[in-house]
């Protein structure tokens, strides 16, 4: 099943727009988007295949950390993660 996983890493300095652009390039291959310019955190929303929500978070954290490292982002811990499955999204659209 496909999951959209939102992740956020938090740290101790302000993230620049240039850094978020680099992160956006790194997560683009994961059908992802990046955020965080002007804040003391950075994040991404990426798509992963997993059996359930817990597995999706585990897979996404690994992929997020690899993308963040390749983009030159600070090595900050993931402080928050949230998932939504493709089924949940479809059910939300059904009146």
Short description:
The longest helix is centred in the middle third of the chain and has 18 residues.
N-to-C span: 23 Å
**Major beta-sheet overview:** 4 strands, antiparallel
Radius of gyration: 13 Å
**Percent in strands:** 25-35%
In total, the number of strands is 4
Question: What is the CATH architecture assignment?
Answer: 2-Layer Sandwich
Helix content: 25-40%
Order of helices and strands: EHEEHEH
Low-confidence stretches: none
State the main characteristics.
95 residues; Alpha-Beta Plaits; four-stranded antiparallel beta sheet; 3 helices
SSE inventory with pairings:
Elements: E1 2-10, H1 17-27, E2 33-35, E3 41-49, H2 53-70, E4 78-85, H3 86-93
Antiparallel strand pairs: 1-3, 1-4, 2-3
Fold and architecture overview:
- It is a single chain.
- The chain has helices spanning 17-27, 53-70, 86-93, and strands at 2-10, 33-35, 41-49, 78-85.
- With 95 residues, the protein is α+β, with helices and mostly antiparallel strands.
- It has a single domain (2-87), classed as Alpha-Beta Plaits (2-Layer Sandwich), CATH 3.30.70.
- Strands 2-3-1-4 form a 4-stranded antiparallel sheet.
- Strand 2 (33-35) and strand 3 (41-49) form a beta hairpin.
- The protein is elongated, with a radius of gyration of 13 Å.
- The model has no long low-confidence stretch (mean pLDDT 94).
